Amino acid sequence: MIDRLKTIAKWGWTLAILAIVVWFCVTRWEMIVKTMSLLSIEMLVLATICIILAKLGLTMTMRTAAVGAGVPLTFKEAYWIYNMTQLAKYVPGSIWQLVGRVVILKRRGAAVSAIRDAILSEHAWVVSTASIMAVALIFIAKPMFFLELSNNVGFSEAHWLWALLGLVAVVILGVAAVFRNRLLPWLWKLKPSGPALVVLALTWVLMGMSYWVTLAPFSSAPIPWYYAVGVYCLAYVAGFLVPFAPAGLGVREVILTFALVPFIPSEVAILLASINRVLYFVAELILVAPCLFWERPDAQAAQVVQEAEASEVI
């Protein structure tokens, strides 16, 4: 029953977002046309290139995590696996891209524990670096942002206190579990390397810049690029953590819109956030196109195993 309710919630959220998009296009068509006329082709192409480069950074992160966990992959193999499974995240459920990756890696002969470590470390690196950059960059650009956000969602000081106490309790219990169960060596093994952190930092900068380059024609005051990067990181994490929103659909756009309202009219901010989502999807289609002409990495691995077995028989 719980799984059924989750599925209904996910599909209901997706259909609600689509209905809102249709309503917005019908009621705000003139504004949409005017806004699009101010966005040059060069801006849209530059934003798409930023997203493509950022997605390559995420591909490198996936490969680094897999290799560190004992799952050897070439960059071409990682590119195929990452980009071919990414489109599955738009299916309500928020897990299908992971399911596809697990199936492919298991067919390659990777151990279940190694696949688990690779996926856990990759997502921990992605979420933690995005969270740190979000807090740091937003605080530098607009120190009162999080207080304003909490006030808008009805989060009072008492709520913040309970949340802080809950966080402290979780940290204490987590530390106790780590030392009691001797998990520290395992967690230490999953830590990111220096190059991986550099790649992720550049990845988030590129993601934020893909949004920032489209803001200039509409802003009433200059928007710091690092503010756009921090806001994009926050929106990405929020979308990642909401289980019923496929690929953070709707959640990411709400955060981006709220953050830009002081600089841009709300309707324009909604449209620009939606355009960024479209460009993000276009970038994913561009990245997945070469994979359609390559042989599956798990098929290559199976062929190698068969050749090895044949040589042993001979």
Report on this structure.
It is a single chain. This protein has helices at 2-27, 29-38, 41-68, 75-86, 96-107, 112-141, 145-152, 157-180, 184-189, 194-212, 225-241, 251-260, 266-288, 297-313. With 314 residues, it is mostly helical. Helix 3 (41-68) packs across helix 4, helix 5 (96-107) packs parallel to helix 14 and helix 10 crosses helix 11 (225-241).
Q: What does this entry show, briefly?
A:
Keywords: Cell membrane, Membrane, Transmembrane, Transmembrane helix. The protein is mostly helical.
Summarize the main sheet.
none
Shape: globular
- The SS-based structural class is mainly alpha
Distance between the termini: 55 Å
Stretches where pLDDT falls below 50 for ≥5 residues?
A: 302-314
Q: Averaging pLDDT over every residue, what do you get?
A: 76
CA radius of gyration: 22 Å
Helix-strand string:
HHHHHHHHHHHHHH
Oligomer: single chain
Number of helices, counting only DSSP H or I runs of 4 residues or more = 14
Strand content: under 5%
Helical residues, percent: over 70%
**DSSP strand tally:** 0
SSE topology sketch:
Elements: H1 2-27, H2 29-38, H3 41-68, H4 75-86, H5 96-107, H6 112-141, H7 145-152, H8 157-180, H9 184-189, H10 194-212, H11 225-241, H12 251-260, H13 266-288, H14 297-313
Helix pairs in contact: 3-4, 3-6, 3-10, 3-13, 4-5, 5-14, 6-10, 6-11, 10-11, 11-12, 12-13
